[in-house]
Amino acid sequence: MTAFPIHLGTPVEHAPDLPERADVVIIGGGVIGVATAYYLARAGHRPVLLEKGRIAGEQSSRNWGWIRQMGRDLAELPIMIEANRLWRDIAADVDTDIGLTQCGLTYFSSDPAETARYEAWLAEARPMGVDSRILSGDETARMIPGMSRSYDAALHTPSDMRAEPWVAVPALARAAVRHGAVIVENCAARVIDREAGRVAGVVTEKGRIKAQQVVVAGGAWSALFLRNEGIAIPQLSVRASVAATDPVANVHDGGGVDRDLAFRRRQDGGYSLASAGFHELFIGPDAFRNAPRFLPELRRSPGNRRFFPWAPQGYPDAWRTPRRWQGDTTSPFEALRILNPSPNLKKIEDVRRRFAALFPALGEVRIRTAWAGMIDTMPDVVPVVDRAADLPGLSICTGMCGHGFGIGPGFGRIMADMVTGRDPGHDLTRFRLNRFSDGSSLVLGPDL
What we know:
The protein is an alpha/beta fold. It has helices spanning 31-42, 77-93, 112-125, 137-143, 165-178, 222-228, 285-300, 332-335, 345-358, 404-419, and strands at 24-27, 47-50, 66-67, 101-102, 105-109, 133-136, 153-157, 161-162, 182-184, 189-195, 198-204, 207-210, 214-216, 236-245, 255-257, 261-265, 271-275, 279-282, 305-308, 367-377, 384-387, 394-398. The chain folds into 2 domains: 24-104 and 159-436, FAD/NAD(P)-binding domain (3-Layer(bba) Sandwich), CATH 3.50.50.60; 105-158, no CATH class.
């Protein structure tokens, strides 16, 4: 098992000829798109998934690997509870050990105001069936002995889990193919094909595929693709850096986070480390266009952002990235197959030092590798999961705000039912596409 995220040098695993037609075409090979293909195939449909680079090549292999109910937006929570169950089913159906472990996850609290936010969330979440609870400082210290600092309290969820994302999502893709899905890597979707004002298929770099239903699950690329189709969503992408340590003693089998540090045990005996809540934004045309919508979230946590005046060449919101193209011209998705941002090495060293200081018995902690990913985020910190009213046959599932890996099977199952006319089984009003244009006030997700 590699400690690295998927990258362009990873061998192509799915390279069939492009089919002439499909029941559903899915654009994007991250956890959402792969899970959608999996559940469609299991229900007897023939989905075709198009991925411009590699399956899980971007944020779906670069996240923390948390499968977290704790702290979720209350509209997401029932879906996440379902996803927790679905991950267990997936682990039994795939062809490899994905590292799925019920380990419990913990939010540490350093002051009464922080504890009060945890208590307020728990009061509303507990009736939905989560097993989260508030721990005292002494209970926290007993649960994780050996920490050099004490915390006032903690929000802990014993049933939360972890898995290895760069193993889990490709394994789920192979299972989807075994059940009847077709996955084509190195095949960018360029534009949606239309007839009589509705979806008729997709034009790709390898040709045209007919379908009456299309799902856009393109992560950080979704807004760029949709804008070319006349659909605007206020999505931005931020850089987050993560590191993996060399194998060390097991000081805690789960994961935890405080204001500065996030950590979780890895299957290879090390720990994944990240700077909690710190993100970096590359400013481009969409950042300017959508800045007013993001102001409430920026005001809520003003010190946890770093801004750059431009994005690297080819990024979705880079100044020179084309915003318009046709089906017979090369698209931006072919120019940059995988978003592979460089990690912030200063932050990586900071979290390494903090982790070593928190667990002094470990002695020297060495970083094995570090990487970064681009997280697709929305102004209210919840995704768009909806049909596009102006283009019948188009469905959208994007803007997971860094929460997509854990909840991926839940939204994948929902999308599979949505596009085949079945009841998705959850209230999706909070995730509607037109919440940005219907005059309603945006409600921020939990600041947890």
